[in-house]
Amino acid sequence: MDSKDFRLLVALHENARQSYRSLGQRVSLSAPAVRDRLKRLEDRGILQGYWLYVDPGIFDREDLMVFYKGDWKREDAVKALAADDVAFVTWKLDGGLSVQMWPRDREKAVKMLTSALGTRPSEQTFTEIQRKHEISPVDWRIIDALIDDPTMPFETLIEKTGLSPKTVRKHLQSLIRNETIYTMPRLGSLADSGDIVYHLSVKGKVALTELRRVLDEAFLVGDTHNPPMKYLLCRASDLADVTSRTQAARKIPGVESVEVTLNRELLVATDHVHSLVREKIREWEDTRRRLRHTRIEPDSETGRYSETAHSPL
User: Fold this and answer.
1) Which residues fall within 8 angstroms of residue 229, CB to CB, at 6 or more apart?
2) Which residues make Cβ contacts (< 8 Å) with residue 110, sequence separation at least 6?
3) Neighbouring residues of 113: CB distance < 8 A, sequence distance ≥ 6
4) pLDDT in tens, 77-131
5) How far is CA 175 from the centre of its chain?
6) What pTM does this model have?
7) Are 245 and 216 in contact (CB under 8 A)?
8) Is the dihedral of CA 285, 57, 53, 133 positive or negative?
């Protein structure tokens, strides 16, 4: 794992649907060289595939992260994944679990997860609903198609949605630009010697520039507001380097805690995300049926309503 490998992983976090050529321009490599590097990362278990992260605000839901310390097994992670409102579970190398939930009722969601795992979480953070823009019926169809295969070829996405290339391109670019969806890499831990890629959670009010000053190569992959916490993807030369950098980060004014985590596996609740998206599609279709014989008709691309000529039949 060298600096260019790490920069490739960072670029994949920003948009994993980029072409090899586009990725290569980011790290000064040819498209074949990018392909070969990604293949090596897959063979070593560092890059375990891709998944679609959807902004929970489009479902009118909060972003809640709950953490479980201890020596949990994979079957526990699967059990957590089946709980109500769970979007994904990260099973850590140290046995801990990080569970992201998209609840409408935060207290009820934690209670259900506690019932599934038999204990309350050690910590939790959340971000309240933040709606960025309206989602159209076309957007929902594109999101639904990408959930199972977020890096599917553009031609396959056209076929899956039944939409024109121009419409798919316009709406997909908008969804990515507005940060409604992210095509993300599934990362595991390094399986052999060499530089280490790890995740760092930093609690407290601290600027990213200050963290990068002591951590060097660090990329923001997410944050929550209550309490304020940043989640970073970092690279270090070895475990001693990880230790020294995290100790330095703990001394930054405003930092309350710093925790290193190495991923073992990321499990995504694709069925749950599908159900939320398809519920929105059904809501639009039901509205369209109710208004079919009126002078108001929802536009199939934007979801907005406009007056139409009403047939006496």
Assistant:
1) 125, 201, 202, 203, 204, 223
2) 64, 66, 101, 120, 121, 124
3) 66, 80, 83, 86, 99, 101, 121
4) 999 999 999 999 999 988 999 999 999 999 999 999 999 999 999 989 888 777 6
5) 13
6) 0.81
7) yes
8) positive
Omega of the bond leading into 227 within 30 degrees of 0 (cis): yes
DSSP state letters, 264-313: EEEEE-HHHHHHHHHHHHHHHHHHHHHTTTSSEEE-TTT--EEE-PPP--
Other CB atoms within 10 Å distance of the CB of residue 71: 8
Spell out the residues 6+ positions from residue 75 whose beta carbon is closer than 8 angstroms to its own: none
pLDDT at position 293: 64
> Which residue reads 């989640």 in tokens?
231
At 241, list the tokens. 């380097």
Would you state the structure tokens that stand for residue 260, as one six-digit string? 């290193």
CA 244, 248, 189, 11 dihedral sign is: negative
On whether the CB atoms of residues 124 and 66 are closer than 8 A, the answer is yes
Q: Are 88 and 105 in contact (CB under 8 A)?
A: no
pLDDT band at residue 199, thresholds of 50, 70 and 90?
confident
Looking at beta carbons, which pairs linking 38-45 to residues 24 or more positions away fall under 8 Å? 38/8, 41/5, 41/8, 41/9, 44/190, 44/191, 44/192, 45/188, 45/189, 45/191
Token digits of residue 285: 């279709």
Q: CA-to-CA distance for 79 and 14, rounded, in angstroms?
A: 30
299: Cβ contacts below 8 Å, ≥ 6 apart = 305, 306
